[in-house]
Design a protein that fits this description.
The protein is an alpha/beta fold. Helix content is 37%, strand content 19%. It folds into 2 domains: 1-32, no CATH class; 39-182, Glutaredoxin, CATH 3.40.30. Strand 3, helix 2 (85-101) and strand 4 form a beta-alpha-beta unit. It is elongated.
Length: 183
């Protein structure tokens, strides 16, 4: 077979397909992006693949939590409000997940601009034991471009945003996204 002729036999086509597959697999292996080990060169933006915008917020107990201090462990950041119907539906899933995985993941519930009494009533009603943070001026909501509630971000141990889930989520989805944040 001359290298400029079109193959005329099945054997010729098979050789072309095998060559194409080898080249394709080689190219995929060469260009595969396995994620940066050094995140210092990543931009901070609320998009998957970017460094998570940093924040420091206060818990209901008055302690401060800074996102960048949590590097080395996966973090789930859930934006919610007490008046939000889907938030009420997903909160038991988050609490159940937290009880199973609290030694493997940091879960943060961020409430925006509601009164401490309102938030505390919701926390007590649902038996929430993971940290609830107060975003009193809405800065973190703005930084993460939260347009609807609930919205949940999954952050890998390097501080990189893995995925976002706008709207209510189920236990199965929560487990799946948690596993993805470990990859």
């Amino acid at each position: 077979m001359n290298r400029y002729q079109i193959p005329q036999t099945q054997q010729g086509w098979l050789k072309v397909l095998i060559l194409a597959a080898v080249v394709g697999i080689g190219w995929m292996a060469y260009s595969r992006d396995i994620g940066p080990a050094d995140t210092s060169n990543l931009a901070t933006a609320p998009i998957p693949g970017a460094l998570a915008p940093d924040f420091t917020l206060t818990t209901l107990e008055g302690d401060e939590i800074t996102l960048s201090d949590l590097r080395g462990q996966p973090v789930i950041v859930n934006f919610w409000a007490t008046w939000c119907g889907p938030c009420r539906q997903e909160t038991p899933h988050f609490q159940e997940f937290y009880e199973r995985h609290q030694d493997e993941v940091v879960m943060l519930g961020i409430n925006q601009k509601e009164s401490l009494a309102t938030i505390t009533g919701f926390v007590d009603e649902f038996g929430m034991t993971y940290p609830v943070l107060l975003d009193e001026n809405g800065r973190v909501y703005n930084d993460y471009q939260v347009f609807g509630l609930p919205t949940t971000w999954f952050v890998n141990p390097d501080g990189v945003l893995v995925s976002v889930a706008p709207g209510g989520i189920t236990s199965a989805f929560l487990e799946d996204q948690f596993q993805r944040s470990l990859e």
